[in-house]
Amino acid sequence: MREVLLGSKKNYQNLKDQFVFYLDNVSVDYGNCSALKDITLTVNPGEIFFVTGKSGAGKTTLLNVLAGDVKPTKGRVFGVDQNVRFISQVFQDLKLFEHRTCEENIWFSYDRSLYKNKNEFRSDMLELAKVLGIQDKLGDKVKDANGGLKQKVAMLRALMARPNVLIADEPTSSLDKESSIKLFDVLNFYNIKRKLTVIWASHNRELVKTFPGKIVHLENGKLIYSGHACFI
Ligand SMILES: Nc1ncnc2c1ncn2[C@@H]1O[C@H](COP(=O)(O)OP(=O)(O)OP(=O)(O)O)[C@@H](O)[C@H]1O
Ligand SMILES: [Mg+2]
After folding, report:
1. Is the pTM of this model over 0.70?
2. Does ligand 1 have an atom closer than 6 angstroms to the CB of 53?
3. Residue 16 C-alpha to ligand 1 middle, in angstroms?
4. 190 CA to middle of ligand 1, Å?
5. For the chain, which domains are there?
6. In angstroms, what is the span from residue 16 Cα to ligand 2's centroid?
7. Closest ligand relative to 203 C-alpha
8. Ligand 1 within 6 A of CB of 56
9. What is the pLDDT of residues 162-180, one digit of tens each?
């Protein structure tokens, strides 16, 4: 069961400076398969966390637990209500609308309570698209886009929702090193400017070790290491 911290709206505001997620001895079983085993983990506001491990180690399952999409078989998950801390996700399979253009996909994040008007949204979108080098591709249909462009569109869509927490599952698996670094730079900018908490799963530990942040390393569903990248 996901346990949302209880309290008045006013109290929620105070919780913003406390943890984003707290996992207390969490295990997830899919039938006979133990995808996560006794994970205890705290994610604090404004942290950048990389979840690493080989294929099948449990990275996606851990992200899904944090997002509230998978319930633990054992243990408890604490998070703060979505009204206070909004989570945006980049899924491993991206979940883009294939028959729509890249720009139309990004517009799904438009929320008029977050932007002064559509022009402000459009100008932010174009600025971010420029940084990622896809400003000329926004009119392309997603079904005609390559894997790298799709990943950038999914990331742009997630960021344009102005989240407090970004959960990204293998967001650079189709990107070369240069584009991966650029994407990280964008997230780092939001981390510094808006205190965005980032949880980023990657099988490429060597790449994410070069970025500032913490690493949670999983092997066969077990948490093997949690701490700064420089010590792993
Ligand atoms: N819905 C499911 N039903 C049954 N088993 C599942 C399900 N989802 C994941 N698993 C199993 O749980 C384990 C962890 O899977 P998970 O997808 O979390 O790993 P991962 O580290 O994200 O792998 P990858 O790098 O390939 O994305 C694997 O053994 C996988 O086969
Ligand atoms: Mg996965």
Report:
1. yes
2. yes
3. 31
4. 30
5. 1-84+165-170+197-232 (3.40.50.300), 87-162 (no CATH)
6. 28
7. 1
8. yes
9. 999 999 999 999 999 999 9
